[in-house]
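Narrative of activities, Objective 1.

The group set out to show that a structural description can be obtained from nothing but a protein's sequence at a throughput compatible with the screening campaign. Below is one input-output pair from the validation batch, recorded exactly as produced.
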Amino acid sequence: MRKTGGCLVSRPPAPVDPEAGPLAAFAAELRDLRDRAGIPSMRALAKSTDIPMSTLYAISAGKRVPSAEALTAYVKTCGGDSAAWLAKRSVLQEQLAAPSSERMERWTTYAPTRLVMLVVRTPESLERVLAAAAAFEADHRIQLIFTIDQPPAPDPRLHKHLKELGVLVTPWRQAVAADYDLIIAAHASDRLRELRGPIAQLAVGAKGDPVYEQLLASRQFRSLYRRALGVRSHHHLVVLSSTWGSDSLLNEHPDLPLRLLAELPADAYKVSLVLHPNIWRGHGRHQVRMWHQHAVESGLLLIDPDDGWQPIVAAADAFIGDAGSVSLYSAMLGIPAIDTKQNLPGQLANAVHELTRPARSRPLPEEAGHAAHVLRTKFYEMLSIDEPSYRAAVRALPPPAHTQVREPASFRVVVREASGEEIRLERYPFVPGDHAERDFIVATDRERDTRVMHEAEVVVVTDPSPLAEAVALVDELHMTYPAARLTAAAAEPGLVITSRPLAGTSQSEVALIEASKGVTPDPALVAAAAYLRLHRGLDVRIRTGPHDFMIKVDTPAS
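Output recorded for this entry:
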């Protein structure tokens, strides 16, 4: 406070430089919000918010992170969005928690002779820069430091990833005041010219692209990625990829994932969806998951953005995309591309027919490793030091760990061939509102749409129970779902079923279904076979996708 003409007035807060660091930038944004709200003085703000003047001055000077309560009161008084500002506060806390080069200087132990600045702008540019920085592995002469070329709409995931990596991060204002032996960036920006040192700008989809090289190496581990996604050896993995904006795949075909699931046999195909991070950011994770809820319940692999797109593409058998960079890399890997304007199942059948098992497990291409060597040689030339004697590493990507893997909750079943005791059928994920061809519906206990459970001809519990419990469970299902012609529960020796009385009979049938010796097919598939058996009165041989088994019917022991 200061005295002017006998009156006490609040002093203006000290100037703050938004380039001085994340806390200063946050304070500058808060000041701008207050100015736009037309609140002229700190005293007026303190009166409106009940925040002490000393706290307001510290916050406005960039000397303190406001508490959640103080920030909410401040922002609401100034007419701002408190939820958005609390999210910004979380990002600020992550930035401040990350190690900084300034704080680490006094703990220096090694004696590096070259300083390399890695400039990042988005999580995607971070991935590319990290792939290139692998050239410096195990070289004690090199010290890496990161800085952020802040875009207009920062992605909070970038700060999260930097914190998890434990890298040294220098604020931009400090970064432009130092000299570097090499600067590496994976994006174009006029601000890069503000940094002092030779700049290596990484190209996309060209010779020497470290991301492409990583994909080449990762294709050899496709079976690892597929297992992590629940994709079996008999499945063909179809990857859908959409960038953001009005020309994107999902903008033009929003129902494509669900449509594709409904048209492809579940025992032969798996469908995954890779979305550009801006889609998750622009609409929110909750909203994106809500839009694709039916598809996920039908078996869609909605790839978590934290898993990245690279291991998914490395595991793919066919690809449907748009003009995004993921489509470019898929084409470079030789993955068959499917045209959405033509018959999808027909194209996919032709594409997977061309895929042979030897091609799937071909040895590491000769070009893999060459680009890493070329890139490292260029870097060390720019650094004016000798290249290490050991080979440049080409490291495969880790398997996806965050994507939710779910089998279809319900199936529509179509009998394709029936001759004698042999039946060939196809199962498709059941999609609500789908009126495609079907002979009957099998609903499992994974189904959350109760309407489907009450409309299905077959209802089955897929987790195995002891035999006595399974017998009791099918009776309970029998009463709960009166429209079902057959209810079933997986049991340790097989599948227990109970069926509605057939024409000309007065009692339900309770039976134990056992598949061929040594075969453990999906309980939902065995239940479908049991349903067909009821209409034929014979033990039957079932063929579908990779499954080929006999079912035998016995009365369970009491």
